[in-house]
Amino acid sequence: IVKAFELVPAVERDLLMGDKARINIECIECCGKHLYVGTNDCFIHHFLLAEVASSKGKPGYLAQKLLHKYLGLKKPVAELRAASALERLIVLCEGIVFLVDMVTLEMVPSAGGGGAKIRGVASFCVNENPVNADPFCVEMGVLSSKRRTVQIYMVYEDRVQLVKELTTPEQPCAVSLDGYFLCLALTTQYMILNYNTGASQDLFPYNSEERTPIVKRIGREEFLLAAPGGLGMFANAEGVSQRAPVRWSESVIGAAVCFPYVVALDESFITIHSMLDQQLKQTLSFRDGHILQNFEGKVILASTKAVYILVPLPLERQIQDLLANHRVEEALILTEGAQRNIPKDKFQNLHKRILQQAGFIQFGQLQFLEAKEHFRKGQLDVRELISLCPLLLPASSSFTRCHPPLHEFADLNHLAQGDQEKVLRCKKFLISYLGEVRSTEVVNGCREDVDTALLKLYAEQDHDSLLDLLASDNACVLADSVPWLEKYHKYFALGLLYHYNGQDSAALQLWIRVADGELQDPTRSDLFEYIVDFLCTSSNVDLVWKYADWALRKDPIVGVHIFTKRHTSKDQLELNPDDVITYLGKHNQALLLYLENLVLEKRVQKEKFHTHLAVLYLERVLSLMSQSPKDEEQLTKARERLQALLRESNLYRVQFLLELLLERATLHGKLEEHDKALHILVHQLRDFPSAEAFCLWASSSRDSAYRQQLFHLLLGVYLDGSPPGQSGDSGELEMAAVDLLNRHGEVFDAVRVLRMLPEGWSLQLLRPFLGRAIRASMHACRTSRIALGLAHSENLQLLHDRLKECKRPVFVSEKKGCHLCHNTFSEPSVVCLPGGVPVHTHCVAQRVRDSPTKRQLTNSSKHT
User: Fold this and answer.
1) CA-CA distance, 240 to 632, in Å (whole number)?
2) Which of 147, 265, 361, 678 has the smallest count of CB within 10 Å of its CB?
3) pTM above 0.90, yes or no
4) In terms of DSSP bridges, do strands 222-227 and 215-219 run parallel, antiparallel, or are they unpaired?
5) How far does CA 712 lie from the centroid of its chain?
């Protein structure tokens, strides 16, 4: 049981009616501080309500009567609704709805004269969730007293406009409107009706002749209804009840919702039920009551003679009682539901503290998701949580716990009562929560405490996010973090912390000890590569020179990346290549890789770098050639690299490199001294495949005539034989010449070759070359003769057919079709085919163009 409300008088009987005993209250309307009362003598009374506090501190109201107005009709005022944006009261009296000025209480004339009136009205309601965007227009649902219809009106300052009319299966007697949805009480049942689409949904039966139906809008697309059996039922626009019903008296005559409470009025009592657990929370005695309504969170009741207000009691007392019983959700919902009744600043502070208390209650119950959400919404100082774990806060922290305390726990061990599994679960939650909030405004002013605590938890729990924390912007206190990281052997992480604090030398020394096996930390298996990358990006040049030698000695191939992968930026100084080359002098492999990077990748156009690289390549080739036995695969790769550089580069000094014959031939080729190059390849190296490859390479970007010239030059070198004074087998050169002709015969001029060949050579040796040459010549000759013969034969055949056809008539008509295109003739000019068949002249012309004699005869094999 919770004491949630106190009944306070607002308008006493004497203030309302004086000594007129027969005057009764028929309806009320409250708009802000303005209270309007409609009476049975057709008067409207206007009061101004002011909140006052009694001498005991209890709330109260003081009513001041501003005006009363007679409406000029005979029957009681049935209903009042305020349209504050229009400064109008919507009044129902004698079955007529009309508008009254809220200040003067004068009836408002319509724009076209007379009153803005709707006649034949049984009841009406105002749409508190209007679909019309016009702020100076009120939507209203109207029940007809004579027809089974519901009408939708738009109410303006001086007129009303009918926009929709719907028929109902029974006579409606009560209505409530939200958006497009009408909740109706018919004679025997409740129903939901969408006036935009016409769709309807029956809810449940109810005999309105036995009990007055109750239809109240309590929220967006949700209604409260009086159901049989003394139940208060909730229904949404889809006809579904998403809340459990509350059980009230069967004689309820009015109901309202003041969240989270449902207030009901019967003949003798006011009952207050919780919407959370549907239990009765409070009962107040109230006789002769017949009106109960909620006006923007203010619950107002009226008897026939006076008006009262149900004032909620202080929330703090209700909420703390609920929290003490661990009824967290009820406490929070009660707090949020009463927001409009508390000043904004006070509510925010109260709400935050209650959320924090609720969070610690659920944290103690290991309901971490709910606790986190409450901590987040309550903007908890995260150090309240951190302080539950001894030693997590740095020694420099000035934090003290909140007073009065938010919880009853001394530390995590107290909370878990010594259960280490619970302690571990709490720490995992703390890691997750601190990780989420550390980059938000929640940690403003305590970033050092939060990041240091998070680092200690990460290290203790061997958490993967430790490196992410230290590699990003952080405020970890170095003095507190170093011993903690050393305790758990997190040396790589400690190096990152040193680096973040500008102590790169300390970081490198620590990492090198780990890489050399002096310290054990399995965090990174690629620590050596990481150190190299770190030096690549370091802006401290002295540090690079100091530790590069260690990296080059450990692995020159990876270590040279310190220099090859270094990028120049405004924060990173460029290293002088000459200084690097000098530094790498004692690391031959690294020096070669660095020069390759300069020349081949970065394309540095400096002669000394190109020459130096070529010399290193050359030395490599000579070294491999001097080995016994030779590593042919390595030698081939080394030569290929050297030759590629010699061909592609134009910057090296040639005279330094003319020491190997094959490379010298390439250099002569670069100078277009092809005769010298071929002389070296043929007579000195006896490397005939390389000679042919040289001709192909030297003519690769030239025309066919240039290539033919080179191959004739090579053939001439072969046929000239060995020069005087040089030993050599002339038969070997002759066989090379024969092979050259037979392999590349298509390049040569056959006539010129025949003139060059010695007369004593056997034709059998040159059979492939000569056979191809003769076949090519004969093929061209025979193809021409065949084409000429076919043309001559076709000409004779056409002359013969023409002479034969001229001797007999040819019949042409519009009904007769061409034999070739099958279209009819439109003119007498035709051509007659053999057999007397007429065809169009243009069809014959096309046939002649497609004749075989007009096409070039080809033969891919060049054979006749």
Assistant:
1) 87
2) 147
3) no
4) antiparallel
5) 68
Picking from 516, 465, 505, the residue whose alpha carbon sits closest to that of residue 490 is 465
What residue ranges define each of the domains in the chain, with the CATH number in brackets?
5-313 (2.130.10.10), 810-852 (no CATH)
d(C-alpha 428, C-alpha 140), whole Å: 56
Q: What pLDDT, in 10s, does the model give residues 456-494?
A: 999 999 999 999 999 999 999 999 999 999 999 999 999
CA diameter of the chain: 157
pLDDT at 457: 94
Q: Beta strands 269-274 and 254-258: pairing type? A: unpaired
Per-residue CA distances from 132 to 129, 160, 220, 532 (Å): 9, 14, 15, 69
Nearest one of 382, 384, 388, 434 to 415, comparing CA atoms: 388
Nearest to 150 by CA among 181, 117, 129: 181
207-245 burial, b if ≥16 CB within 10 A, otherwise e? ebeebebbbbbbeebbbbbbbeebbbbbbbbebeeebeb
DSSP summary character for residue 299? E
End-to-end CA distance of the chain: 117
Ramachandran class of 665: left when φ > 0, alpha when ψ lies in -120 to 50, beta otherwise: alpha
Cα separation, 627 vs 341, in Å, equals: 98
The residue among 528, 565, 573, 564 whose CA lies nearest residue 547 is 528
Nearest-angstrom CA–CA distance, 564 and 598: 8
Burial class (CB in 10 A: 0-12, 13-18, 19+), 676: middle
157 near 88, Cβ under 8 Å?
yes
Nearest to 595 by CA among 563, 638, 568: 563
Q: Please, is 396 exposed, middle or buried when counting C-beta atoms within 10 Å of its C-beta (0-12, 13-18, 19+)?
A: exposed
Strand order in the sheet with 222-227: 215-219, 222-227, 231-236, 246-247
Written as six digits, the tokens of 692 are 């042919």
Q: E strand or H helix at 768, and its extent? A: helix 767-805
In degrees and rounded to multiples of 5, residue 367 shows phi and psi of -95, 75
Q: Which two tokens stand for residue 132?
A: 């019309």
pLDDT digits (tens, 9 = 90+) for 119-140: 999 999 999 999 988 888 999 9
The secondary structure of 508-545 as a DSSP string is HHHHHHHHTTSS--TT-TTHHHHHHHHHHH-S-HHHHH
Q: Contact 247/231 with Cβ under 8 angstroms? A: yes
